[in-house]
Amino acid sequence: MDELLEENIESVEDTGFSYEYPILDQDNQEITDPDLKLGYLRKEEFNIHHESIPEQWHYKVVSFRFTDGEVYKIEDENDPHVKIIDSQKGIFNYQSLDGEPERTIVGQTIAPVIDNVLVPAWDEIKTFYRYVPYTEKELSDKEFLANGPASLAEAQETIEDLLLVIADLLGGSEE
Question: Domain residues for 39?
Fold first, then answer.
């Protein structure tokens, strides 16, 4: 998920936008060049819940003790003398290799090995921009606001001209 997010951020940055988050449309499709004259960006977040990952472990043999008092230390978990019966329960046996005398074990030392540590559940918040197209009303309001002062000035001149014409007509009819 993080790789996808990084790719989205990079592709948005390549277009010249300096937004730090990906931009998605109403259908959750990525947009790399939103037309900000026809819509706007709204910052949104969503939560991704990650379940906990349980600890995983097994036992390994550290050493075997034999009837003659000798102790054989295991240096590597792949030692050919170790026969794994059940590493989850710590059950192992010693096996003699070809040419070695048979030996009887009287004890063994085992130790737990953690394969994966416990990772508690966590929530991750992802942020993105949502591209929201303007409605027809919003577009017409934007057009009016952009051109309104010029239109208003023209309308003001037209009203003043009309008032002069009316004044002339009214003034001329009294004579």
Answer: 1-50+121-133
